[in-house]
Amino acid sequence: MSFAIEVNGNTHSLDVDGDTPLLWVLRDVLGMTGTKFGCGMALCGACTVQIDGAPTRSCVTPIDSVGASSITTIEAIGATPAGAKIQKAWLDLEVVQCGYCQSGQIMSASALLAGNQHPTDSDIDDAMSGNICRCGTYVRIREAIKHAAQSI
Ligand code: FES
Ligand code: FES
Predict the structure, then answer these.
(1) Which of 18, 69, 71, 108 is 20 to 30 A distant from 84 in Cα terms?
(2) Ligand 2 atom closest to Cα of 99?
(3) Alpha-helix residue ranges (DSSP H) falling in 67-101
(4) Which residue has a Cα nearest atom 4 of ligand 2?
(5) Residue 98 CA: which ligand is closest?
(6) Ligand 2 pocket at CB < 6 A
(7) Which residues of the chain have a pLDDT value below 70?
(8) pTM higher than 0.90, yes or no?
(9) How many Cβ atoms from other residues are within 10 Å of residue 84's Cβ?
């Protein structure tokens, strides 16, 4: 089937099966490999993108459900006000270890900060609970989100 989707402000025309997960459209069709595959079952958060600003697991999002929504990926989150602050905080606090989970972490954290400029520990835990980090960077992630919030 033919689809037209908007990713990072650009419209892309595709010819894929309607049940193709958005993750594979991004990675295999559009060549945008910043969004990662972890579990494929909405359990780890590695594949998180934003759809109309909401953090969304792209591994379980069929392309025919996206419609005219606006998709933002890790490749462009730094162009948003919240994303720029989150990425700077990630660097300032040296959050990353192996890095595999981190694009998903940044997409969830940026969505949180865009909607809540002064998140509490509880807000952060709620927003980030679906993003798993096998390297255990959770403490630095929480501090980086607070650091980013202080810069607003
Ligand atoms: S790959 Fe999508 S949540 Fe794990
Ligand atoms: S930094 Fe390695 S899995 Fe999170």
Answers:
(1) 69
(2) 1
(3) 81-92
(4) 133
(5) 2
(6) 96-102, 133-135, 137
(7) none
(8) yes
(9) 15
